[in-house]
Amino acid sequence: MAKTNKIYDTKLMELKELVRKIEYLKYTLNSLVYWDKITNMPEKGLEYRSQVMAYLSGELYKLFSDKKLRSCVSFFEGRKDNEKYVDSMVKRIKRNYSYVSSIPVKEYTQYITLIANAERQWEEAKRAKDFNKFAPYLEKIVDSFKAFAEYWGYEENPYDALIGYYEEGVTVKQIDSLAEELKLFVIELLSKIKGSGIYIEDNLFDIYIEKEQQKRLSEELLKNIGFDFSAGRLDEGMHPTTLASSPNDVRIITTYNDNDIRVGLFNTLHEGGKGIYEQTINSDLMGTMLAEVSSFGLEEGQARIYENIIGRSKGFWTSFYKTLQEICPQMSELSEDKFFRGINKVQPSLIRNDADELTYILHIIIRYEIEKDLINNKIKVSELPRVWNDKYKEYLGVEPKGDDEGVLQDIHWAAGYFGYFPSYFLANLTSAQFVAAMERQIGSVNELLSEGKLDLIHKWMADNVHSHGAIYSPTELIEKATGEKLESKYFVNYLQNKYFEVYQLNKN
Q: In what order do the strands lie in the sheet with 249-254?
């Protein structure tokens, strides 16, 4: 990576040193401090922890606003003698500091404090099943993001600015088109499934499994797919997530349900997909801002591969079902075939994280539409419970009985993840497209899974996606790994093949 030009080398060392300081703060604040807050911190620690997080955010703001950093970036920007990673590093740094430094520092630190307190209020409101306890905080969060959209800028729709934070170049116009297309596809396939005459029992998983058993099972699942416990750990929290301080320190948080083993299984597989992505990033990229996932959508795509394409496949359970029954003997009377059909049962539900693979996209569309309307002043925060319930009744035919299973079910808004849900659109598409490319190169994924060869799948993902970190943009990485631009056909074909088999539909 070294250059022969002495001035160039000196400037590059200076830039990396500045970036390393940013990473120290960024990963400590967003990963380690946040992980402790949502897993171990006692209730009374919130006020002081909020002050600490606000202070660290202010210091991070200062580093991103440093004139030395801007000077170094300017030195390398547009140079023809840069290596690819240097160009990528400069672009990544500019993208980060433009988002942070465009917000007035006082406003930014106030927002961090707001988020730190809002998450606890969300937890309390969810336990109380009372949206009104959280609404005042959400109103301030929504107002913050309306202001951020103006600071960040947009061409057509203020919500474009928020989507762009997570997925560069993606717009409301694109997502609207995709949402309508997927909505029509899901509705048509749902209609065929309802008319199939195939009935999958509702109570297959009404089996009490102790939490300790489920924790052991989650650990075995993660080991099986390639998660390295010497470079990571598994914990329990209110909401599943994955937090990385470096490729060698990745924290997975999952949830369990004593009366439904699927909750822990698929939350763990989902987060496990993210975890092995984070762990397999080339550690040499630390200190360049590139030892990160290329985008949130691509990370979610990896999660969907392990949760659904692998985790709900017949092949995976051919090799792993015996282990599940050994750890959870309560499942010994449920046959492997019934288990496979049961985990692929299509039935509209209230909770996004518990949704079947097919109707899941409707949960995302609902959240996307609500966020877009909030930012565009078409609905008010006070109207959310009614709007949420109406959309669930219209799209999925189900209606929440309480706010805990309705508008309060996700932590995203309390944590400040406005504009994140469109990433799930890209996630579903990229997951299927990557697997299709993989199969062209190393053979049937289902056969590899049935033979227990997850190491080959992991290696393909590591070589083609994970190890590159953020050197390539999502668009570049998709084309590099699959040989073509992002297409919807692979996801549609995957769903059709899956559910035509499960529900014995006529392909004609």
A: 232-236, 249-254, 241-246
**Cβ–Cβ under 8 Å, residues 268 and 234:** yes
222-235 confidence digits (pLDDT tens): 999 999 999 999 99
Quick one: residue 416, left, alpha or beta (phi over 0 = left, psi -120 to 50 = alpha)? left
Domain ranges of the chain: 6-155, 172-502
What phi, psi does 63 have (nearest 5°)? -65, -40
Beta strands 232-236 and 249-254, pairing class: parallel
Nearest CA-CA partner of 363 in 175, 139, 123, 183: 183
Sort 453 into a burial class: Cβ within 10 Å, 0-12 / 13-18 / 19+.
middle
CA–CA distance, 244 with 248 (Å, rounded to integer) = 8
* Position 3 pLDDT exceeds 60: no
| CATH tag for 172-502 (out of 3.40.366.10, 3.40.190.10, 1.10.1370.30, 3.20.20.140) | 1.10.1370.30
pLDDT in tens, 318-349: 999 999 999 999 999 999 999 999 999 999 99
Residue of 167, 271, 292, 369 marked catalytic:
271
The dihedral through the CA atoms of 401, 404, 407, 410 has a sign that is negative
Query: What SS3 string covers 145-213?
Result: HHHHHHHHCCCCCHHHHHHHHHCCCCCHHHHHHHHHHHHHHHHHHHHHHHCCCCCCCCCCCCCCCCHHH
Is 271 part of the annotated catalytic residue set? yes
Residue type, 18: L
Contacts of 73 (CB under 8 A, 6+ apart): 15, 90, 93, 94
